[in-house]
Write a structure and sequence with these properties.
Chain A: Its main location: membrane. The complex is a heterodimer of chains A (359) and B (322). Chain A is an all-alpha fold. Chain A has a domain of 201 residues: MetI-like fold, CATH 1.10.3720.10. In chain A, α3 packs across α5, α5 packs antiparallel against α6 and α5 packs parallel to α10. Chain A starts with a helix and ends in a 6-residue tail after the last helix. In chain B, β1 and β2 form a beta hairpin. The longest helix of chain B is centred in the middle third of the chain and has 39 residues. The chains are: A mainly alpha (359), B mainly alpha (322). At the A-B interface, α7, α12 and α15 of A face α1, α6, α7, α12 and α13 of B.
């Protein structure tokens, strides 16, 4: 700046470049965000995962329920035949126990065939390619994460905004309801909700299974996550709007005759938006974690639909199967990476969007 | 102050009543009934049997009528039988499940607390140091890792690969003698405790760190320094004391949550605790077990809330309840 000002002073008339527009809030935020290395890394990884999920069907030669029977051990001790009667070149490197009593354990091992590049992450016990299923599962898990987080944030923002802005009895009702929802034990609520939505006698459940068929469980899990996670946003937004409402610029707006809606949309929301965006980002990771936990317990996404969570459904048994660790390792790794990256991005956004932060 | 606490304590009773109505109604709304389990395991089960049993157990009555019976008995300390385990539901929960849960969650929370508080403090005192960055990074991992997957990986590394520790369950059958039993139980505890404490540890460290950072910049800390107090005293007496305050509520509220919510860890390590008991009871419609455990957890939530308030008064003289 100093150099330019000196240059400008020495030369008249003032060149137009000097009257540079100040960068907008969003430009400033982007600059700050770019300096946050972990957040940039997280954002990049999330983008890559999203791309891989979106283009999954074109990126992999297998269908997500395709079983590579050639590589399955039909019976223990008998390797699958290859093209010329010899063992298949990609045959699994499983130690076949000599003890006949242990034979039963390796009838369907997870198969790792790294050397042929056929299944980089191996296959599961049914001979399905794990990489393909991780990509397909990513579509579901990320979809659940984004939709549930977005909806929960919208609902939470709406309720929190209404509670804070209207005050009085409306605020009391919404706040008490939020408190009750927060103090109810989560687990039974989850079980009962999923149970209710699985019951064909409940009208909503019947409608869902009629219209959605096998992918119904995805919508059910999204609904369950929304019901369980709007409360934190409501509290946050309520607190934020309450503190903003008593600020001078709102008084000024009101004094100059601005309508309630105008104040809400033009003054309160833009000032609370950074809190909401950060909350939504963290919520995505949270939703993916809830989905995986529920699916692990067998309550979430139901087969034939695939998600990272339900790939892990019987994972703790696979730990004891030869090569079985691949079945348990990869889906969990992707859940972990995704949630970690969303948390990094959320942290970066918190720093970048804070209106009090300097350039 | 005393009057306030008595009032708060008395409020627990009506609150518990409301919670019991809500939970009972939710359980009744859930599809299926306790007879389903019998029918599934019994091919000779006829529709007449079904009707007879429904009548016998009073399941033909609407839920509020059943609730009325239940609450009348419960008030006298009778929580009904567990249909699945053939013993009083309360005995099953408190004798066979609660001790395991107390052991697992108590130990996990204790370890999490003992590690999280000093780590968070140190991290804040050396803000922007390598140590601080390391702690922050590990915290990110701790809050992002799916707990059941972390448990499975621990199990794979330490039980399957290294064969150092048992892969779950409570104890090895057939071990004799006091000392070997203690060692055996401890070995079984290591992995589940590690998995369960990781999440609490990460979030508490984070909380402790930001709580410290907030206080470090306050005026009275500067005053303490300005009047020439040694740095150690400033930290111990002025910063730490005040920073540890908010974490008390967090810990008090985490206790009941961890006790009922450890179902993922309990599932992975086949640990017979309360979380799994509640889960199974709800899944197979063993209502009495579900009710007694959920009521117990709710009571704990309320009691620990009260306890947090009491501790607050003791440690923070500025707080007055009137």
């Amino acid at each position: 700046m100093t150099n330019r000002t000196v240059a400008a002073r020495s030369k008249a008339p003032i060149p137009e470049k000097v009257i540079e527009r100040n960068p907008s809030t969003w430009q400033l935020a982007w600059r700050r965000f770019r300096r946050h290395k972990l957040a940039m890394l997280g954002g990049t990884v999330v983008m890559l995962l999203l791309l891989a999920a979106i283009f999954a069907p074109w990126l992999t030669p297998y269908g997500f329920s395709y079983q590579n029977r050639q590589l399955l051990l039909r019976e223990c001790g008998e390797l699958p035949p290859g093209e010329f009667g010899s063992p298949h070149p990609c045959a699994p490197s499983v130690d076949i126990p000599s003890d006949p009593q242990l034979l039963g354990q390796c009838v369907r091992p997870a198969v790792l065939v790294w050397k042929c590049g056929m299944h980089p992450f191996g296959t599961d016990d049914l001979g399905r390619d794990i990489l393909t299923r991780v990509m397909q599962g990513g579509r579901v898990s990320l979809l659940v994460g984004f939709v549930a987080a977005l909806a929960a944030t919208l609902l939470g923002t709406l309720l929190g905004g209404i509670a804070a802005f209207l005050g009085g009895p409306v605020d009391a009702v919404i706040s008490r309801f939020t408190d009750i929802m927060l103090s109810l034990p989560t687990l039974p609520l989850l079980l009962i909700l999923t149970g209710l939505l699985a019951n064909q006698e409940v009208p909503l459940a019947a409608y869902l299974s009629q219209t959605l068929g096998p992918s119904k469980s995805i919508v059910v899990i999204i609904i369950v996550i929304i019901v369980l996670s709007w409360m934190s946003t409501t509290r946050l937004v309520r607190g934020e709007v309450l503190s903003l409402r008593s600020r001078e610029f709102v008084d000024a707006a009101r004094a100059s005759g601005a309508a309630t809606r105008h104040i809400l949309v033009r003054h309160l929301l833009p000032n609370a938006v950074h809190v909401i965006i950060v909350q939504a980002t963290l919520q995505v990771g949270e939703a993916i974690l809830i989905e995986s936990g529920l699916s692990f317990l067998g309550l979430g996404i139901q087969p034939p639909a695939v998600s990272w969570g339900n790939m892990l459904a019987r994972a703790q048994e696979f730990v004891f199967t030869p090569n079985g660790i691949y079945v348990a390792f990869f889906p969990g790794l992707f859940i972990f990476l995704t949630v970690l990256c969303f948390n990094f991005v959320g942290d970066g956004l918190r720093d970048a969007l804070d209106p009090r932060a300097k350039r | 102050m005393f009057a306030y606490l008595v009032r708060r304590a008395l409020q627990i009773i009506p609150t518990l009543f409301v919670i019991s109505v809500v939970i009972y109604a939710l359980l009744a709304l859930k599809p299926g009934d306790p007879i389903d389990e019998l029918r599934r395991g019994n091919p000779g089960f006829t529709a007449a049997d079904y009707d007879r049993l429904i009548k016998l157990y009073g399941l033909d009555k609407p839920w509020y009528v059943r609730y009325w019976y239940w609450v009348g008995r419960a008030a006298q300390g009778d929580f009904g039988p567990s249909r699945r385990f053939g013993m009083p539901a309360a005995q099953y929960v408190f004798q066979y499940r609660l001790p395991n849960t107390l052991l697992l969650s108590g130990l996990s929370l204790l370890i999490a607390f003992v590690i999280a508080v000093p780590t968070g403090m140190l991290s804040a005192l050396r803000q922007h140091s390598l140590f601080d960055y390391g702690v922050t990074f590990v915290n990110f991992i701790g809050v992002s890792i799916p707990i059941f997957w972390f448990g499975i990986m621990l199990m794979y590394i330490f039980s399957v690969q290294l064969r150092l520790l048992p892969a779950g369950s409570l104890q090895t059958p057939g071990i004799e003698g006091l000392w070997p039993i203690i060692v055996d139980r401890a070995r079984h505890l290591i992995l589940p405790v590690a998995a369960l404490s990781s999440l609490q540890m990460a979030s508490w460290t984070r909380f402790m760190r930001s709580s410290m950072l907030e206080i470090i910049n306050l005026d009275y800390i500067r005053t303490a320094r300005a009047k020439g107090l040694p740095e150690r005293l400033v930290t111990v007496r002025h910063t730490m004391r005040n920073a540890i305050l908010p974490i008390i509520t967090l810990v008090a509220l985490a206790i009941p949550t961890v006790m009922s919510g450890a179902v993922l860890t309990e599932t992975v390590f086949n640990w017979p605790g309360m979380g799994r008991a509640i889960f199974d009871a709800i899944v197979v419609n063993d209502f009495n077990v579900a009710m007694v455990s959920l009521m117990f957890i709710s009571l704990l939530v309320l009691l620990f809330n009260l306890l947090a308030d009491i501790i607050y008064v003791i440690v923070d003289p500025r707080i007055r309840y009137d």
